[in-house]
Structures are given as structure tokens and as C-alpha cells.
Amino acid sequence: MRLNVAVVGGGIGGLAAVLAIRRAGHEAVCFEQSSELGELGAGIQIGPNASRLLHRLGLSEALAAVAVEPARLQFRRWHSGAVIKELVTGPEVIAAFGAPHYTLHRADLHRVLVDAVADVRPGLQCVGADQDDDGVNLRFADGTFYRADVVIGADGLGSRLRRLVSSGVARFSGKAAWRVLVPAEAVPNLADPPTLRLWLGPGKHVVSYPVSAGRLLNLAAALLADVEDTESWTREGPADELAAALHGWDPDLHTVIAAAKTTLRLPLFDRPPLEHIGTGRMTLLGDAAHPMLPFFAQGAAQAIEDAWVLGRVLRNATRATAPDALRRYEQARHARTATVQQRSVRNGELFQLPNGLRQRVRDVALRRFTLTRFDWLYGYDADTA
Ligand SMILES: Cc1cc2nc3c(=O)[nH]c(=O)nc-3n(C[C@H](O)[C@H](O)[C@H](O)COP(=O)(O)OP(=O)(O)OC[C@H]3O[C@@H](n4cnc5c(N)ncnc54)[C@H](O)[C@@H]3O)c2cc1C
Prior knowledge:
By secondary structure, the protein is α+β, with helices and mostly antiparallel strands. It has 2 domains: 1-37 and 120-169 and 273-347, 3-Layer(bba) Sandwich (FAD/NAD(P)-binding domain), CATH 3.50.50; 39-115 and 171-270 and 353-385, 2-Layer Sandwich (D-Amino Acid Oxidase, Chain A, domain 2). The chain contains 14 helices and 17 strands. Strands 5-4-12-13-14-11-15 form a 7-stranded mixed β-sheet, sandwiched between helices. The protein has a 5-stranded mixed β-sheet with strand order 2-1-10-17-16. A 3-stranded antiparallel β-sheet has the order 7-8-9. The radius of gyration is 21 Å and the shape is globular. The site of flavin-adenine dinucleotide has 34 residues, from helix 1, strand 3, strand 15 and helix 11.
């Protein structure tokens, strides 16, 4: 019997879930609160642990048209830009992990997923869900209802569905991510060859990489931020504030900031791993379940892994066995996502060590880095794990 699965939230995680659940032979429909489907004007990395799953969902060609596979990964010193360590990536990543490491414009990735799902239902904000033995009634802000056999909450950091299945509040990290996108030709020093760069500095770090098939360069800076600030934040932050915060940093970064038309600023949150992310016929995925700091660039990748595992557990499920299948999904994902959440916090600390002995020890360790260092993360295959 085909299940009727409702996915609440049309972000990267929700859309991937629809595709994975349909691939498992069920019906899946996606409800999105925004009336216009889209994503932030910023970049995203999709590591091999997630790109292999997107390929299996039939998206290789569409991704190849918009993604970049950086040829190098560089760790740099904050003030001079001197390279601490360079790794050759591109084909080496495929040789090591069997799938590429992509850098993309978020809107491009989102569009690829929306096109593949084909029938996302926009403008429908879920405001509640009531379940009985046979199914779940979703309630929407416009007064309409939808009945499903199974409901997946893919409604992000502020998830309304999470409040129905679990407690716990998001935790402000004390940091904000500043993000800009500029035309590649405005920053020739950083555009060619396609490179994923990290500048590591005391209390701050910066990442840059090409997106949109190399036409644009994405820059993201993780800087300290006051908790009080978050209340009044808009999504745009003044470029001169970003430039001032990076005073004394590599001049190439200032070339990027000077070329930017808009500067986005987002407070960064995560949440300690939750014991329960589901009950009965409802479960969560992605940021709704395990929001994480972006310092391993894995939030969306983990949401895509979630989506794949949901497809796996639901493959042979019936209306009667679906709740058990969801519990198997939750068990299968708990340790993995908790590890990535915790290591993301730790990575942020390492990237931002103050000048001094610990920073020098970190750099010695970095110089010994090889791709095998990422086996635990990128070598993971959600289909067999
Ligand atoms: C600065 C920064 C950089 C990052 N970089 C990376 C990276 O390089 N690689 C990576 O893998 N991850 C990265 N991440 C993390 C990644 O962006 C998120 O983990 C990912 O987007 C989460 O996807 P999601 O689908 O779970 O949630 P979301 O993207 O938040 O989507 C949730 C969707 O649900 C909708 N929604 C919410 N409530 C309702 C409702 N009640 N009814 C209907 N719809 C609703 C929302 O409108 C939204 O469309 C980064 C995050 C940040 C902040």
C-alpha cells in the first residue's frame, strides 16, 4: 500500500525528503509557508556524503550545470593570506569518497530540487497537527486541512512541528555569519582556479568559494555578535561594519567586500542534540531536528542524509507499520547528527583560536592534513550505514 506522506517545509531538507519518499514508492506532498519559493542569496557547500545522495535522486545533470567542484582547499593565515595548508580536491575528492564536493548558490540548489519535486504547494503555513491511530490532520493558517498517513516536519530552526514532539530551545552561539556574493571578475585573485579558501584568525574566520558555475564568488565571515543585537537584526548588515570587523585582514577580503552590493547578516544558532524528534506518525528532519553551526558546512548535508534514510525505512512500510519505521529512522540518525552537531562547535573554536601556542599547534596539525581526515564525514553512505 502506498503511504500518503506530508512534508511541512520546502527547504533543501523537505524537498530532498519528498524525492526520497517518492523514490521509495509512496506519495509525498510538500507544503511551504512562503508564497514564493526560493533561498537566500548566498553560497552553500554540499559535501560528498550528500552529493552522492542527490545524484541517486537523479539530480547529477541538473547539478553539473550550476555547481562548481573546487580544485583546491586552502587554509590561510588571516592577516597575510599566506597558505598554511593546501589540499588538491576536485577529482581527488571523487577518488577518495566516490562523489564530488560541490559549491553552489543556494537559489540554484533549491531550484534544482523544486523542479524535481514539480508540485510544491506554496503559501500554506502549517499551524498545527493532530494525530489519531490512523493518520495526522495538518491545520494551515488559511483554515484548510490535510490528512496524511505520515507527517515529516522539515520546517527549519523555528519548527512549529518540533514543539509538538519535543522540547528544547535553540541556543545562540554568540556569532553571526556575514555573507556576500560578488561577480568573479571583480575579484580575479580569488576566482581562478576555483578554490575553497578559509582564513583562520583570532575570534573570527572567513570562507570563500565560487558558485553559479564560477560566475560568482561567495564569501562568508563568522564574527562575534552581541546577543542583544539579534532582536533588532534585519537580514542586511552594513558592509562598512563587516570591513571594520576585518580590519588588518588579507587585503583580498576587502576587495570582495568593496565589490559587494548587499551584505547579509544572520545570527547563528544550534541546539544540543534532542533525545526525541518524533512521536507516532510524525517525525522531524534537518534544522527542525538538529540545527547545527555551519563550521563543518553540514546542516543541509545532514538534512539530505535524513531524507535518504527516511526513504529507506519507509520503503516497505504500511499505514500500520509506519510509526515503527519512523522510530527506526530516528535511531539510525541520532548518533550521526549529534556527532556532526558537536564537532561543528569544536571546529568553530579551532578555526578561531587566539594567536599563541594552541593556534601554532593547530597549524602544525593542519599541515599534516590529508583528505582521509574527512573519512568519517564524507565517506559515510546513508544507503549502507
Ligand atoms: C551561514 C550558514 C552557512 C551554511 N553553510 C552550509 C553549507 O555550506 N553546507 C551545508 O550543508 N549546510 C550549511 N548551512 C546549514 C543549512 O543552511 C541548513 O542546515 C539547511 O538549509 C536546513 O535545511 P532545512 O530544509 O532543514 O530547513 P530550512 O532551510 O530552514 O527550510 C525550512 C522551510 O520550512 C518552511 N517553513 C517553516 N515553518 C513552516 C510552517 N509552519 N509551515 C510551512 N512551511 C514552513 C520555511 O519557510 C522554509 O522554507 C549553513 C547555515 C548557515 C547559517
